[in-house]
Design a protein that fits this description.
The protein has two helices and no strands. The chain is an all-alpha fold.
Length: 61
């Protein structure tokens, strides 16, 4: 019985999968945080650029 428990505790199969799941979850959480933080600022900047370009009249005489 103790041999089976020792073998189970030494077994590392699946540990890499857990590492990848934690790593991917961290990346997704970081991306969501960045999008939430910078999303509204990017929309304001895009609106400013749109206004500037619509008011710009190149090559007028």
């Amino acid at each position: 019985m103790f041999q089976r428990i020792k073998r189970f505790l030494k077994d590392e199969d699946g540990a890499v999968t857990v590492d990848w799941v934690v790593l991917c979850a961290g990346i997704v959480a970081m991306a969501a945080f960045i999008i939430a933080t910078m999303g509204s600022s990017a929309l304001v900047l895009a609106g400013s650029v749109t206004t500037m370009l619509s008011d710009w009249a190149p090559f007028t005489n």
